[in-house]
Amino acid sequence: MPSDHTLRDYPHFAPATSRSALRQLQSALRDNRLELFFRALRETATGGNTVLTGCELCIGLRDADGTLSCGAELDTLIERYQMGLEVNRRAIEMAAAALRDARSPLAGFDLALLPLPQQALADRTMPQWLDEFLREHAQIAPRLGFTLDAAALAGDLIAGRYVIGQIGRRGCRFMLDDLGVSGAGLELLRFQHVEYLGLRGDLVHQVAHDSAAFETVLGLCRITAACNIATVAREVDDAALAATLGRMGVNYVLGAATQALRK
Q1: 249 Cβ contact partners less than 8 Å away, ≥ 6 residues apart
Q2: What is the pTM of this model?
Q3: Are 257 and 237 in contact (CB under 8 A)?
Q4: For residue range 184-222, what is the model confidence (pLDDT) as tens digits?
Q5: CA 153 to chain CA centroid, nearest Å
Q6: What's the confidence (pLDDT) of residue 254?
Q7: Buried b (16+ CB within 10 A) or exposed e, 50-61
Q8: Which of 144, 231, 227 shows the shortest CA–CA distance to 188?
Q9: CA dist., res. 5 & res. 9, Å (int)
Q10: Strand, coil or helix: what is 137?
Q11: What is the tally of helices (H) and strands (E) in the chain?
Q12: Which DSSP symbol is given to 172?
């Protein structure tokens, strides 16, 4: 099994110009230097309705000199140059291959979650491509899930419902991220078919000493429990915090450490 990594420890692309950044991205895709990393879901004392062995996948691109770019900086570059669809399709193909491979670290997981960016939600060709892909790989569809940003989803509810409907009928599951506590955010839980709600790390780390954060997390746990949605707290590596969140009703936690699918 590859050693643990933390994505923020990696160096990032540092292009001198926008044109050179675009060339680096195009070269990395052309030469098949896209890499996937995963972090495992850990069940809290509250747990879920069923035993789940799951993980979240993260995308990285390796430069020709071996430098790896990932995390927020990479996401910004991909969005800036409108390459989200190409990167996302490649990542989905790689994730599906890993789920089918008995030698892969993903072989033992019931669910692998991949981010579905705003560009994919807005592009009408993506649901059709993904629907056809999942039809051809029906055996892994129930083990493949997608993370949706709540702000992006709220910006185009019709597109979001269409994507979730098209993909969900193949058996895929969804996690809604960065919900917030606004009325619009809570409406998403009522009208979107999602199985998981992601709780931001900066929020859950405040529950021990901030009453507003405590009540927010507690309230979201009560709402999601009533909607039969499991909660997933991000950036939780501390066992004591995980135990506290479990007592509050959080079902799963995700740490910061990741493992590479390949070295």
Answers
A1: 46, 218, 221, 222, 225, 231
A2: 0.84
A3: yes
A4: 556 667 656 889 999 999 999 999 999 999 999 999 999
A5: 14
A6: 94
A7: eebebbbbbbbb
A8: 227
A9: 8
A10: coil
A11: 11, 11
A12: -
Say if residue 108 is exposed, middle or buried (CB neighbours under 10 Å; 0-12, 13-18, 19+): exposed
Distances, alpha carbon 31 to alpha carbons 54, 91, 154, in Å: 30, 14, 36
CA separation for the pair 48, 128 (Å, rounded): 32
What would the two tokens of residue 251 be?
């079902």
pLDDT in tens, 3-35: 444 443 333 444 434 567 677 778 878 888 888
Task: Look at the chain and count its residues.
Answer: 263
pLDDT at 47: 63
Q: How many CB atoms lie within 10 A of CB 1?
A: 6
DSSP 8-state secondary structure symbol assigned to residue 101: -
d(CA 73, CA 76): 5
DSSP string, 173-233: EEEEE---SSHHHHHHHHHS--SEEEE-HHHHTTTTT-HHHHHHHHHHHHHHHHTT-EEEE
Q: Are 198 and 175 in contact (CB under 8 A)?
A: yes
Q: What is the gyration radius of the CA atoms in the chain, in angstroms? A: 18
